[in-house]
Amino acid sequence: MTDKRPRWAPVRHFAERSVLGLAAVTAIGLAFGILLLLVRFHWQPLLGLDRSVADGLNSWASGSDTIVAVLTQISSFGGRGVMIPLVALLVTVLLIRRLPRPALYLTVTGLGALILDPSLKALIGRLRPVVEVPVASAPGNSFPSGHALGSMVVYGMIVLVFLPAVRRRWRPWFIGLAALIVAAVGFTRIALGVHFLSDVIGGWLLGVAWISVTAYAFRIWRREAGRPVPALTDGLEPEAAPDLRPAPAEEAVLPHPWAKAAEILVGWVFVFGMLYLVGYSVNRWEPPFDDGFPRWLQTFRTPSLDDLSWMASKAGDTHAILIISLIFCPLALALWRQWRPVLFLALAMMGELTLFLCAAAAVGRERPSVEQLDGTMPTSSFPSGHIAATMCLWAAIAIIVMARVRQPWRWIFPALAVIMPVIVALSRMYRGMHHPTDVLGATLLTAGWLTVLYFTVRPNAHAETASEAAAEAEQVTRRPVTVG
Predict the structure, then answer these.
(1) How far is residue 89 from each of residues 78, 84, 95, 240, 315, measured CA to CA in Å?
(2) Do the Cβ atoms of 229 and 217 come closer than 8 Å?
(3) Cα 68 to Cα 327: distance, rounded to the nearest angstrom
(4) Each residue's pLDDT tens digit, 316-373
(5) Which of 91, 280, 318, 469 could form a disulfide with 464 if both were Cys (CB 3.0 to 4.6 A apart)?
(6) How confident is the model at residue 482 (pLDDT cuts 50, 70, 90)?
């Protein structure tokens, strides 16, 4: 007689997991429902606890501007301005890796959280805390905390989707990092005085319930599609691990890393020496021979051009450069499955920042003798940090893309490597922040530093197009994968 147990074992395991999961979701839902009722009907012990926690944390946070700034920065990791672009970027990465099912899960779960937050806030209508020393403000009602709900959902579903790509020994750290971010965001919302403790706990409970429901629906979808249903400790789709891993087929990113580090350090010193020599020479001219150009540009100032130059100048500030880098690096990694171009761009921007700060501190050049629309700046005029950062960013991206893209649109990136620095340079000089020789310093910094990195990192070694990388990864994907 044939043994039927192997055939029914997956069904039994799925049933057991389903019952346990349903019980957990029910318990979480009940806890949230009870908390909602207590808040809605103003249960005094809970109100007293909320008030004492809010007052205590407010008195601690309001005593230091530094603490408030740090709390605000941490809180931003739970705001829509960070989480919506993050989810959109990850969905794009998953689609590039040809993983539409996890991409759809991220999209549906994220959209659900966006709907739940304002709906429940409008239904409950709880006012935000009134603290003695307000240090922050937020629109809308208080219960549940949108930051707590959103961070729990976003970072929770990121863990579920990308867990298969993490080696088993690192998974507790990966989960712990996500939990730490969620806890930190919730704490900051109370400490900043924009939410009560019960608001944050309610957001967490609702977030856990929502990702539990969507994860359960995803597992049902897998079973209906004839796929095995693994334990959640293995992630939503364990068989997608080769596609989720950043660079499964790449060998050593840099051979002889210590020797390469020494070469990069020596190159950095030589570029700094060149900048200091040029900056020292320029700084000895009294009065500066190129002061006339910013004064000439000042004659064209109008309110409209002032606003336009401010926007153009912002294209080269730290936030814009960081945002573009954080968008390009994951997309490059998803397309070409190599860390080397990402390392090249990261070193380019870190080297640019350190060279700019060190050279500016060593040279100490005064700003042009015109009205400076951006006010007093903490760094000296030579070299221009905005222009150097813009040059390094777009030139590095152009170097990477030109070796890996065959389509005609690739020429957009060399064009941007020229157009963007010109726009930023003109705006900075128009606003009275730099001399033309400061632009020269930025150009020397970019040319010298990218040359050093190009010949040490060799970002285009083993360069592949997206189709070649996908074909190679397809061979990796075909290897047998054990599903727990």
Answers:
(1) 16, 9, 10, 18, 20
(2) no
(3) 28
(4) 888 899 999 999 999 998 888 888 899 999 999 999 999 999 999 998 888 888 888 8
(5) 469
(6) very low
- From 218, 244, 270, give the residue that closes a domain: 244
Do residues 215 and 313 both lie within one domain?
no
Cβ atoms within 10 Å of 72's Cβ, excluding its own = 16
Is 396 inside any structural domain?
yes
Structural tokens at position 300: 């064209």
The parent domain of residue 240 ranges over 5-244
The identity of residue 456, as a single letter, is T
Residue 157 in any domain: the answer is yes
The answer, yes or no, to whether residue 235 has pLDDT greater than 60, is: yes
Is the CB of residue 150 less than 8 Å from the CB of residue 117? Answer: yes
Q: What is the mean predicted confidence (pLDDT) over 86-101?
A: 91
- Contact partners, residue 386, CB within 8 Å, separation at least 6: 313, 316, 317, 424, 428
In whole angstroms, what separates CA 193 from the centre of its chain?
26
Model confidence at 484, pLDDT cuts 50, 70, 90, reads: very low
Q: Which of 383, 392, 376 is nearest to 360 (CA)?
A: 383
- Residues 392, 349: contact at Cβ < 8 Å? yes
Q: Which helix (H) or strand (E) holds 347?
A: helix 340-363
Return the higher-pLDDT residue of 474 and 215: 215
Distances (CA, A) of 38 to 25, 26, 35, 200, 381: 20, 18, 5, 14, 59
356 and 287 belong to one structural domain: yes
SS3 at position 202: helix
Domain count, the chain: 2
- For residue 257 the two structure tokens come to 């890393």
Residue spans of beta strands (DSSP E) within 328-440? none
Report residue 356 CA to chain centroid gap: 24
Other Cβ atoms closer than 10 A to 52 = 11
pLDDT-derived band at 473 (thresholds 50, 70, 90) equals low
Residue with tokens 């221009």: 384
Terminal-to-terminal C-alpha distance of the chain: 28
Specify whether the CB–CB gap between 315 and 426 falls below 8 A.
no
Round to whole Å and give the CA distance between 422 and 442: 12
Residues 383-413: b if buried by 16+ CB within 10 A, e if exposed: bbbbbbbbbbbbbbbbbbbbbbbeeeeeeeb
Question: What is the CA 395 to chain-centroid distance, rounded?
Answer: 22
Distance of CA 69 to the CA centre of its chain: 19
In sequence order, which residues have a C-beta less than 8 Å from that of residue 111 and are 6 or more positions away?
Answer: none
Sign of CA dihedral 142, 146, 147, 148: positive
What does the alpha-carbon distance between residue 325 and residue 347 come to, in Å, rounded to a whole number? 11
Give dist(CA 298, CA 413) in Å, integer: 31
